[in-house]
Design brief:
Number of strands: 0
CATH class of one domain: Mainly Alpha
Number of helices: 15
CATH topology of one domain: Serine Threonine Protein Phosphatase 5, Tetratricopeptide repeat
Structural class: mainly alpha
Low-confidence stretches: 1-10
Helix content: over 70%
Length: 268
């Protein structure tokens, strides 16, 4: 009998970050940079000397496997770290599709359980929504919508914004959801069935970038959305957004991965 994808993932090390040209942090040097590193979601920093500070340093250095393991070792307090490290790793670096989807399901389950127990925990809600979105893209957005995952994702992100109006990443994720649904089912069905609108997508992107203007992932998502919503008529604007993302100086491993994606997108 062959091993399950989850067992296979557990038996094999995660793919290491392929870049060395990024800032390095430890538990002490991390904290002064915390507001910049967490500008997208305003997560409070761990207390000085807390083991989770070491875990977050590992995350920002791109040691996602060690960061996730340390987060899981600290129970509910470490779940944001574990979920963020797992979801970001799965999205950017995991080469095996079945394992990637398994990782997203793990995050959906862990974050969803935490959100059920703590309905006002916007960080649990956000990572549940993030994983739902990436999982939906993996199985096809149309299939995910048919399974009701879109409504769950949209509701979680709207609740995050309600709880934390300065949550830039949630604005961007919800903006991308509006655009993806319209791209897949059309503007009329999207508005009537899922409550999505092109103008709302743009409004959410603009707000997200107002809150966090140096986010390479937000710039790229906005560029992709303009093409989904308007086609080649907005190719120039989309290209400018990718160029801006590609020119940013990354502050950590995830941003380094985003900048590389932006550069690759410009050469496609």
């Amino acid at each position: 009998m062959s091993a399950s994808p989850v067992a296979t993932a557990a038996a094999q090390s995660w793919t290491p970050l392929p870049y060395a040209d990024l800032p390095r942090y430890d538990a002490h040097s991390l904290l002064p940079h915390w507001p910049r590193l967490h500008a997208g979601h305003a997560l409070p920093p761990p207390p000085s000397g807390h083991p989770l500070a070491d875990g977050w340093a590992l995350y920002h250095n791109g040691e996602f496997e060690r960061a996730a393991a340390l987060g899981l070792a600290h129970g509910p307090d470490g779940l944001v770290l574990a979920n963020q490290a797992t979801a970001v790793y799965a999205n950017y670096l995991e080469p095996r599709e079945s394992v990637r989807l398994s990782m997203f399901r793990q995050v959906i389950e862990r974050a969803g359980t935490q959100a059920s127990a703590e309905p006002d925990n916007c960080h649990a809600l956000y990572w549940q929504a993030y994983a739902l979105g990436r999982y939906s893209q993996g199985i096809s957005v149309a299939r995910a919508l048919a399974q009701g995952l879109g409504s769950k994702l949209k509701g979680a992100l709207e609740r995050v914004i309600e709880l934390q109006p300065q949550h830039a990443d949630a604005h961007v994720a919800l903006a991308a959801f509006h655009a993806e649904v319209i791209d897949k089912v059309g503007a009329l069905v999207g508005r009537m069935t899922y409550g999505v609108r092109a103008e709302m997508s743009v409004e959410l992107f603009e707000r997200g970038l107002e809150l966090y203007p140096h986010s390479p992932s937000a710039l790229m998502e906005y560029g992709r959305a303009l093409l989904m919503l308007h086609g080649d008529a907005r190719l120039g604007e989309a290209t400018q957004l990718y160029e801006k993302a590609a020119a940013l100086q990354p502050a950590d491993a995830k941003e380094r991965l985003d900048v590389e994606l932006a550069r690759a997108g410009l050469t496609d």
